[in-house]
Amino acid sequence: MQDDAGLLSADRLPDATTFLRMLRHRVVVPPATVSADFAGAPDLRSGLVWLMRQSPLVPLHYESVQTEMPEGLFTNDTRWNAFRWWSQALGFSQPALTALSKASDQKSKIVPDPTEAVVEAIRAPFGDPLPRNEQLPIGRLLDFLRAELPVLPGHPSATYEGLTDNDDHAVRVLGLALSSAEQRGVLSMAYQSDPSGVMALPDAQDYGRSRYISTVTIKG
Question: How far is Cα 122 from Cα 188, in angstroms, rounded to an integer?
Answer without folding.
Answer: 13
